Amino acid sequence: MDLPHIVAAGGIVVRNDPQPCIGIVQLRKNRAWVLPKGKLSRNETALAAARREVLEETGHEVSVHEFVGALSYESRGLPKVVQFWRMQALDRPVRKLTRDVRAVEWLPLPDAIERLSRAHERVFLEHVGPVVLRAAAEKKRSRTVVRRKPARPRVAAAPKRPARVPVGIEPTLHAEAPAPAVIERPTLGEVRAEAPLPAARPEKPAIAPLATTTSNEPASRPRPWLRRQLIDRLLGRSARTM
């Protein structure tokens, strides 16, 4: 069985003035300076309650970051546990302070620690304050530094393709026609005449002359039968030559 206790939540709020400052509030009822915090409402989470309480007591919208720790002490005879988150105040106040808060101050860390009215809150802020400021400074640098875009990896240029030379269609080689014969025209007054070829003369059968004597006198006539034989022989020779 859980013992009854009080659960609250709040924030270590940083505002970026010329130097980082911590926000603390002054309660109206007893003029005490305390860290902004408050009790949880029914069915409310600690984180939601922390954001709401800081807005009501400081008047600033905040961005909530990491959890920084819890503070435990006795309040009105009961144990009280307060959870804190690091917060960043946004721009100017957006609303009036709640009626329970008389004033809000933004002080450097040493001055804020000294201004706090309760010892347990001073000890707590001494421990978590430097951590909160370092985290806020790193966040601020990450916002102000212009991040260069990563250089694009260089892609090796593709080898250039050789230029395409249009392949001409070789002309079909036609056999050259023989050069026309040049006919030389005779000059004026010059007539070239070729002598006509002699007409072929039919060969006449050779007829042996009559036999003569040494004294050029005709020999005695051959006998008729011998003469016919000689003529037939001569005619047969001429027929073979034709």
TrEMBL record:
Q: Which GO terms describe its biological process?
A: AMP biosynthetic process; ATP biosynthetic process
> Does the record bear Hydrolase in its keywords?
yes
Q: What is this protein called?
A: NUDIX domain-containing protein
Keywords tagged on the record: Hydrolase
Please give the Gene Ontology molecular function terms for this protein: bis(5'-nucleosyl)-tetraphosphatase (asymmetrical) activity
> Superkingdom of the source?
Bacteria
- Sequence segments annotated as region (Disordered): 143-162, 197-225
Under CDD domains, the record lists: NUDIX_Ap6A_hydrolase (cd03673)
User: Which InterPro entries does this entry report, sorted A to Z?
Assistant: NUDIX_hydrolase-like_dom_sf, NUDIX_hydrolase_CS, NUDIX_hydrolase_dom, Nudix_hydrolase_domain
UniProt keyword Lipoprotein present: no
Q: Where is the composition biased (Basic residues)?
A: 143-152
Question: Pfam families this protein is in?
Answer: NUDIX
